[in-house]
Amino acid sequence: MNGLRHDDPELFKLAEQEKKRIAGTLNLIAAENHPPASILEVLGSVFNEKTIEGYPGRRFHAGCVYVDQVESLAIDRAKQLFGAEYANVQPHSGTSANLAVYFSVLSRGDRVLAMSLPHGGHLSHGHTASISSQCFDFRHYTVSRDTERLDYDRIRDMALAFRPKMMVAGASAYPRLIDYKIMADIAKEVSAWLLADMAHLAGLVAGEAIPSPVPFCDAVTFTGYKTMMGGRGGVILAREDLGPKINRAVFPGTQGTSPVSMIAAKALAFKLAKTDGFRRIQQKTVETAGHLAQCLKAAGVCLVTGGTDNHQVLVDLNGTGMTGIRVQESLEAAGILCNRNVVPADTRVEKGAGGIRFGTAGLAARGMGKTQMTAIAGWILRILAAPDDPEGVKEIRTEVRSLCQQFPVAAYGPPE
Ligand code: DSN
Fold it and tell me: Which CATH architecture group holds 276-406?
């Protein structure tokens, strides 16, 4: 980044510090990952210059000969990777992708049935803080009080009573698999569209570590930067016949020009997702999450649903006297990054959340497996036992640094 170093030393220094931070800490934030260097290269490439409106072959600005090929490549690769009939690679984010799907087939005020946010759903699934709730009439299903898993009988009952025009299957904090077939059957029974939001799961699906929602859903949205290991931005997959409606809902419906550098990074991520290395990382992501869950559970830690089938492990701190924010901050001081999260039946929502969410994609991307996870689980347990012990935190920080040296982030190398 010699140009940046010259033009803005202050920003250059921050970028160097950020690299060191990433290289020297363990990233267990479920919504993050470590993309390869080539993704970062293409994000900062010549493709950033081009303004595009419209779709390949139908643009409003001249000079699109090569960027048309970039977008077509991304579309073709997305369709091929996920076995989808249609793909739109222009959404700025997962939320933009969801909004475009809603607006493609719904009218203002139409009913939508989605997962409640405190039970794992996402803001863009009709939370009151999201514009989605102002445009559509959302009702929310929850997880079962006993099992903390989706209760499909109850979802069906709600759907029959509420008669939604669309159902959303998807979560940002749910450690179990979703049965898309059952959700599709329910949606069919009430003549609702079915949207799956697999933002967290796309890489696991692409790597065949978990089942795909694509065969069962009218539309599927996801983001590139979580388990998918790519750049930022959202993607919509759908049935072919919905394509024209979704295209219009993305541009000009909810977005203007889309950054071609981000579209190019999506194309690259889809190519990399076909490799054996990517598949191995996705398998390892699920394995190490399962191992983390086992280690924590064996030590008496309360886990939402008692375990995991994907990359997430959700710890329920209700009843421990600790809040999510306190544990998150102590772990961060020790070099272990995660996020506080609301959990089902949370009594600490206002006090810093009653849970913490871990994800293992970033560790698997560094090549870490069960052995390293055993050590990391041990450090997490020490922090949970004594979050305010500065000596313990310091000791763990040293061990975390040493592990980071042994397993460098590919794009940045080992920490100094
Ligand atoms: N959806 C948010 C999360 O899961 O943390 C951001 O991607």
Answer: Alpha-Beta Complex (3.90)
